Amino acid sequence: MRSWIQGCLQSCRASMLVNGVAMNEFHFYIGLRQGDPLSHFLFILVTESLHVAFSRGIHIDSDVDFCISHLFYADDAIFLGEWKESNVFSIVHVLRCFFFTPGLKINLSKSSLLGIGVPYEHVSILVNDMGCGNMTLSFPYLGLVVSGMMNQISSWREVVAKIALCSFFSILKSCVITSLLVWIWKREKITWVSWKKVLAHKSNGGLGGEQYFCS
To answer: The Reverse transcriptase domain covers which part of the protein (predicted)?
Structure first.
């Protein structure tokens, strides 16, 4: 598997434009080109290694109560666990080991620590030791504002409003297209309106139907 991946990486060739002139081609030995279909596969492999690292880290030392769950979504990672100083620094230790293996370093300055039911002063102490941010409720995540009252209807009203608004525009768009087609082709007679005129912009004497089929 490693030789196969390495062969895919080293078989790539590229050239650079200098003053509009293509220079001699050179080989890629590290990294992938933008849009390379292999990048998704390698990303899954690296993420799986981080998952295995945390799964094994739970059983590293039987004398230490290290119980942490983790969730991955795209390039975001969430680590959940009981509020203990040993748990927090165990996460940092596993992330450092992960950095030495594939060479991917977690940017702690872009990471945040959230303590639920924990005094703000206690969280601030660990935040200063780790060098990360201090997260408080509420915070946005994937377009949803997460707060301490997610079991209440009021916390989901914004999401429901967005879904309803998207549905409204979808129905409106469908009705406009249907009405336009019925008006043009319903009657059994010669179609006096050409398709070119239907798609033409209204400023050019058309019906402006192109925007509905291109969007």
So the answer is: 1-146
- Bridge-partner residues for 70, per DSSP? 79
- The Cα–Cα gap between 95 and 125 comes to 20
| Residue 144 belongs to some domain of the structure | no
Q: Do residues 176 and 184 touch, judged by C-beta distance below 8 A?
A: no
pTM here? 0.49
Q: Which domain holds residue 203?
A: 161-214
How far, in Å, are 64, 176, 196, 213 from residue 186 at the CA level?
76, 15, 18, 19
Q: Does residue 114 contact residue 136 with C-beta atoms inside 8 Å?
A: yes
Residues 122 and 47 in one domain: yes
Is residue 200 within 8 Å of 207, Cβ to Cβ? yes
Cα atoms in the 13 Å half-sphere on the side-chain side of 1: 4
pLDDT for 74-133, tens place per residue? 778 888 877 888 888 888 888 887 787 767 777 878 888 888 888 888 888 888 888 888
Residue 85 and residue 127 in one domain: yes
Answer yes or no: do 19 and 46 share one domain: no
Q: How far apart are CA 48 and CA 24, in angstroms?
A: 38
- If asked whether residues 8 and 41 sit together in one domain, one would say no
